[in-house]
Amino acid sequence: MNILLSIILYTVFLGYNNWRMELGVDYADFKPVGAKVVKERISDIPYELADEGGALDSGMYEKGYIASINGIDIEDSVQLVEVLEDSRSELATVYACNLDQECDFFEVILSEEGRMGVYTGYNHLVYIDYSNRKVFSGVFHSINIVKITGEVFSSMFSTAKQTGDYSELSNTVSGPIGIYFIIDYFKTLGVITFISILADLSISLALINLLPIPALDGGRAVILLIESVLRKDLNEKVEKTIINVSFILLIFLVIVVMIKDIINIERLQSLFG
């Protein structure tokens, strides 16, 4: 029922948002199921001058947008790096505009590494698009949310394993207190956004319930699988003991997570206050 609820809610959310949802730029290479990832250009390359470098010496605007270099229109930050590296230690003609849309050409001396002395940002938005799969968009989006979550946790676990610091990974787990702050925050952002977070929570509960813990549905499924392999029922007392012990451990885990949330309550308030 959690999975069904998330599918319904995701369908409503996506339908309201023209059958697409914005992803972070880090997911430009994500391979979705039943959808496509699209990039939408929103501006020229935004930049801000560094404390030193050729851009500062050339008199470029402190903040603005880079439109072209040496007559080449710059589409994204990847192309920007490629163009600059092709002109290492040379004089580059940069066409840039400030925040008031005043534009001019600047002669910038590049470093040996092909750097001009600016901090750049992203000029694209990345969307996951279900416009060709509208009827089953909720189903596919539920799968993709699980897939993205798995990739994020896998990356965080690998990083934690390398550094030995699992604090960031542990902070991704919250109990009733953390969920309260999340819901209380997102309900102020409008009905559609609130529907989205409810769908996320619903699919999360479904995944947790499918874990092979005897007190949960996933654990009961494992017991049924074992019984089907053995072709006989487990001893009733043994089964009851396994379920009761796992339930106690599960409650203990919930209490530990709640204590963690209480300890970090100021952090939760700052994030969702």
Write structural notes for this entry:
With 273 residues, the protein is α+β, with helices and mostly antiparallel strands. It folds into three domains: 2-38 and 127-176, no CATH class; 45-122, Pdz3 Domain (Roll), CATH 2.30.42.10; 210-272. The protein is built from ten helices and nine strands. Strands 3, 4, 5, 6, 7 and 8 form a six-stranded antiparallel β-sheet that branches. Strands 1-9-2 form a three-stranded antiparallel β-sheet, with no helix packed on it. Helix 6 (176-186) runs parallel beside helix 10 (265-272). The protein is elongated. The chain starts with a helix and ends with a helix.
Strand percentage lies at: 15-25%
Largest sheet: 6 strands, antiparallel
Global geometry = elongated
What would you report as the Rg, rounded to the nearest angstrom?
Answer: 26 Å
Give the end-to-end Cα distance, rounded to a whole number of Å: 31 Å
Low-confidence spans = none
- Tally the beta strands: 9
Instruction: Specify the number of helices.
Output: 10
What is the succession of H and E elements? HEEEHEEHEEEEHHHHHHH
Binned, the helix content reads 40-55%
- Count of domain modules: 3
Mean pLDDT: 86
Structural class label: alpha+beta
